[in-house]
Amino acid sequence: MNVKDYFRIKPFIILFAVLLAGGSTACEEPEQTIRLTSRERIQIDTLAGHQVDSMRLIMDSVCVSIYHGMIQRALDSLLELRRSEEVKLRARIQQEQKQQ
Asked: Which helix (H) or strand (E) element contains residue 37?
């Protein structure tokens, strides 16, 4: 395939890509709105509240079990950061002293 053939086919490739992109988005169904009565909303809120209450104990126990590990990792990270800053600062101080 030479350059002339490429430029002859290029508009068709672009048109095909645009049609393919447009056609793929046109197949979506329109979004439906759901209207709930106040009674249904109260019922859903009550069910969600019960689910959250039952999960709260599990979430709290998980939080307690990983808390110390998270604190230790955060502390290690901060110490590592400060040590690297200290090394850079000491190197800079030594370099400045050598220049004087």
From this structure: none
Higher pLDDT, 26 or 58: 58
Q: Which amino acid is at 90?
A: R
Q: Cα–Cα distance between 86 and 88 in angstroms, integer?
A: 5
Distance CA 10, CA 16 (A): 10
Q: Which two tokens stand for residue 74?
A: 């955060």
Amino acid of residue 60: D
Please list, in sequence order, all residues whose beta carbon lies within 8 angstroms of the beta carbon of residue 44, skipping any fewer than 6 positions away.
36
CB atoms under 10 Å from CB of 78, counted, come to 10
| pLDDT per position as a tens digit, 2-27 | 556 656 677 777 777 777 776 666 56
- CA gap 55, 48 in Å, rounded: 11
Domain boundaries, the chain: 43-100
